[in-house]
Write a structure and sequence with these properties.
This protein is α/β, with parallel strands linked by helices. Helix content is about 45%, strand content about 25%. The model has no long low-confidence stretch (mean pLDDT about 85).
Length: about 220
C-alpha cells in the first residue's frame, strides 16, 4: 500500500516537473517567435514549433501556400566584407521568381546616406551610437552572384527587399529595392507576385530547391 502511494507521488512529481518544463519551453519559443520575422512566414506559433527543428520542414508554410501558392523558403547567413558583419537573409522562391529579403532584426533609426547605410541607436546614457553598414545595392548584387554561382550559374530573376522591425525609423530611399517594416512583408511580396508573370512551375521550384539543398546541406 505504502509502495503504491510512494510510486503515485513520484509519478505526480515527475508529471508536474515535465509540465513546468514544457510551459517554460513554450514561453521561450513564443518570445523567440514574436521577436523574429517568423511571425510573417508561418501561420502561428504551433506551425513554427513543429517545423523549426528541420530546415527542410521550415522551407514550406501553410500561410504562404494560401497567400502566394507554390513556394519554397530558404534561410541564408552571409558575412559581409565590410567589418565582417553577419547578415541574415530569407529567400522565398515563387512561380514569379526569387524574393531576396535582407533582414535587420534590431530596432533602430536607419539612414541611407552617400552610399552607406547607417544604423543609429542609443546607449543607457541616451548617447547616440552610429554604425556604418554595407550599402544594400552592393550587398544584393554580391549575394545574387554567389547564389547563381551556387546553382551552376543558373540565372534567377530576383526581387530585393530590405526588411526592418516595426519599431524601426526608416530614412531610406533606394531605386529597385523595397524598404519595408516587418508587418508589410507578405503584402509587399504578394503585390509584386500578382503583378508579375510566372517564370517557374511548381516542378521548377522543387528542382531549384533540391539543387540548392544538395549544395548547402
Amino acid at each position: 500500500m505504502n509502495d503504491n502511494r510512494t510510486l503515485f507521488v513520484v509519478l505526480i512529481g515527475f508529471f508536474c516537473m515535465f509540465s513546468i518544463a514544457m510551459v517554460i519551453k513554450t514561453i521561450r519559443n513564443y518570445y523567440i517567435f514574436k521577436a523574429s520575422f517568423y511571425t510573417e512566414i508561418y501561420s502561428g506559433l504551433f506551425e513554427y514549433i513543429t517545423r523549426k527543428k528541420s530546415l527542410k520542414r521550415m522551407s514550406q508554410s501553410y500561410w504562404l501556400e494560401r497567400e502566394l501558392g507554390s513556394h519554397r523558403i530558404m534561410y541564408q547567413i552571409t558575412k559581409t566584407k565590410y567589418e565582417n558583419i553577419v547578415q541574415p537573409y530569407i529567400l522565398i522562391l515563387l512561380t514569379t521568381g526569387l524574393y531576396v529579403i535582407q533582414i535587420h532584426n534590431e530596432s533602430a533609426h536607419y539612414i541611407c546616406h552617400q552610399g552607406t547605410l547607417k544604423k543609429i541607436t542609443e546607449n543607457k546614457n541616451k548617447e547616440k551610437i552610429v554604425q556604418n553598414l554595407p550599402f544594400p545595392i552592393s550587398e544584393f548584387k554580391n549575394f545574387q552572384y554567389h547564389f547563381e554561382l551556387l546553382l551552376d550559374n543558373t540565372v534567377i530573376p530576383m526581387r530585393y527587399i530590405l526588411a526592418f522591425t516595426d519599431h524601426s525609423q526608416l530614412d531610406i530611399y533606394l531605386k529597385d529595392i523595397s524598404v519595408i517594416q516587418k508587418k508589410q512583408l507578405i503584402q509587399t511580396i504578394k503585390e509584386y507576385h500578382l503583378q508579375s508573370k510566372d517564370v517557374y512551375s511548381k516542378e521548377d521550384i522543387e528542382r531549384i530547391y533540391y539543387h540548392f539543398t544538395k549544395k548547402i546541406f
